[in-house]
TrEMBL record:
GO terms for cellular component: membrane. CDD domains: MFS_PLT. Coiled coil: none annotated. Belongs to the major facilitator superfamily. Sugar transporter (TC 2.A.1.1) family. Pfam families: Sugar_tr. One of its GO terms (molecular function) is carbohydrate:proton symporter activity. The keyword Glycoprotein does not apply. This is Major facilitator superfamily (MFS) profile domain-containing protein. Gene3D superfamilies: MFS general substrate transporter like domains. The keyword Transmembrane applies. Residues 44-491 form the Major facilitator superfamily (MFS) profile domain.
Length: 530
């Protein structure tokens, strides 16, 4: 009823409510009508998502650089584990600051800040004379990565129209995979240099993407939702007109953002006073201390999807691909790096496929099928590596199966769990909680990734490499169960409608007259709209 009445008011015509509702569905539901891609929103999403190249490149390049760092600096496996994984914990500082920073100075300038910090870190790593200095460079770069991880999906979600939000919000994951591939190629290209120069060139060249980012961000507009939070309605509607599929949708998005920000519907001046400035005060209380049933469900869903994405071992595969291939029987450095490049290409291809499927297939079915494929790949990889480990002779079929399952694992991850985690967590939080909520998700993501990265080599020594992947497979099964019961579909809904999808579970019964439509709702508390 609220949607119908709002439509009548905004159209300024005497249209019956039934027709108003029909117009709304046809105009804004991508299942009914598929408008052309908004080129301006597309360009904004690309520029913002370039920040994710920073993380991707660091992950990819360290997988190969670690081989030469260990030889040059004479460090142990534990020191290598810490070197590779610690950047995830360092990034928590950036992620913790990013929510409040982006609310204070805007999404756009937060992206600039992320690029500048990573640039400094890459230069420091490239000129590292010893292990301690290298760790300091990792610390600086980690802060920049933390900023980039939080701000890219938030900005992209806020400028995207509902019809293509899944497509555009998956761009950060696309660029992470692009960065990983560039890192792998960099490993192979600079591996021919001398031992002391090669790995330093691999790390130092990472400063280039951050320079390109700083230049590109000058062409980006500010997020319309941040502009509304600052009372700049005139600037916001200009951006909304450019990033929406129609003028009517732009007005609808503006009305919804105004309502979420507490601005009266009658306020239409270019600059208005916002009743409650959203700078982060009270947000954590709403998230954890006094959440509504819907917010509680959103928090559980967001933290859960980030945890299971990383706990299933993806960073172990991506960071330690050369080690895995060595355990499988490939001993030559060049062959290991080439096989790792194949991992990067596979991830990149399947993430591109996923971007075109998110708004067609939906988040939920794509995620569930993706995790199912990950479970199968992990258990098969664990079995093949265990057979190789216990065999006295080289088993060519097992080596081939190990390589194939590594590729199938990263493929199934990239087509669902990889991009959907960032899309889903960035779109489910209401406006007043979005920046801090997304930052919180990044914290869980990076902590889990850090634990996996800093324990993999030790874990393989303790329970064998096959045992490690059996463990990751078990975690992926738990994630599949969690996703099935806790994550509702969000495709085609505006960001301001999202909260109504949470706070309840759907329990399906047999379709018969006794149960009506065969669905009942189990509330997660009281005062939830049904």
């Amino acid at each position: 009823m609220d949607i119908q009445l709002n439509q009548v008011k905004m159209s300024d015509g005497k249209v019956v409510e039934e027709k108003a509702d029909k117009k709304f569905v046809e105009d804004f539901n991508p299942q009914k009508k598929k408008p052309k891609r908004n080129k301006y929103a597309f360009a904004c999403a690309i520029l913002a998502s370039m920040t994710s190249i920073l993380l991707g490149y660091d992950i990819g390049v360290m997988s190969g650089a670690a081989i030469y760092i260990k030889r040059d600096l004479k460090v142990t496996d534990v020191q290598i584990e810490i070197l590779l994984g610690i950047i995830n914990l360092y990034s928590l500082i950036g992620s913790g600051l990013a929510g409040r920073t982006s609310d204070a100075i805007g999404r756009r300038y937060t992206i600039v800040l992320a690029g500048a910090i990573f640039f400094a870190g890459a230069i420091l790593m490239g000129f590292s004379p010893n292990y301690s200095f290298l760790m300091f460079g990792r610390f600086v770069a980690g802060i920049g990565i933390g900023y980039a991880l939080m701000i890219a999906p938030v900005y992209t979600a806020e400028v995207s129209p509902a019809s293509s939000r899944g497509f555009l919000t998956s761009f950060p994951e696309v660029f992470i995979n692009g960065g990983i591939l560039l890192g792998y190629i960099s490993n192979y290209a600079f591996s021919k240099l001398t031992l002391k120069l090669g790995w330093r060139m691999m790390l130092g060249i990472g400063a280039v993407p951050s320079v390109l980012l700083a230049v590109g961000v000058l062409a980006m507009p500010e997020s319309p939702r941040w502009l509304v939070m600052r009372g700049r309605l005139g600037d916001a509607i200009i951006v909304l007109n450019k990033t929406s599929d129609s003028k009517e949708e732009a007005q609808l998005r503006l009305a919804e953002i105004k309502e979420a920000a507490g601005i009266p519907e009658s306020c239409n001046d270019d600059v208005v006073e916002v009743p409650k400035q959203n700078t982060g005060e009270g947000v954590w209380k709403q998230l954890f201390l006094y959440p509504t049933p819907a917010i509680r469900h959103i928090v559980i869903a967001a933290l859960g999807i980030h945890f299971f994405q990383q706990a299933s071992g993806v960073d172990a595969v991506v960071l330690y691909s050369p080690t895995i291939f060595e355990k499988a029987g490939i001993t030559n450095d060049t062959d290991k790096l080439l096989a790792t490049v194949a991992v990067g290409f596979t991830k990149m291809i399947f993430i591109l496929v996923a971007t075109f499927m998110l708004d067609r297939v939906g988040r939920r079915p794509l995620l569930l099928s993706s995790v199912g494929g990950m479970v199968f790949s992990l258990l098969t990889l664990a079995t093949s590596l265990t057979i190789i480990d216990q065999s006295d002779k080289k088993l060519t079929w097992a080596v081939g199966l190990s390589i194939a399952t590594v590729l199938s694992y990263v493929a199934t991850f990239s087509i669902g769990a990889g991009p959907i985690t960032w899309v889903y967590s960035s779109e489910i939080f209401p406006l007043r909680l979005r920046a801090q909520g997304c930052a919180m998700g990044v914290v869980v993501n990076r902590v889990t990734s850090g634990v996996i990265s800093m324990t993999f080599l030790s874990l393989t020594k303790g329970i064998t490499i096959g045992g490690a992947f059996f463990l990751y497979g078990g975690i992926a099964i738990a994630g599949l169960i969690f996703f099935y019961f806790m994550l509702p579909e969000t495709r085609g809904k505006t960001l301001e409608e999202m909260e109504g999808s949470f706070g309840k579970f759907k329990v399906k019964y047999d379709n018969n007259k006794e149960h009506g439509n065969g669905t009942d709702h189990v509330q997660l508390g009281t005062n939830v709209r049904t």
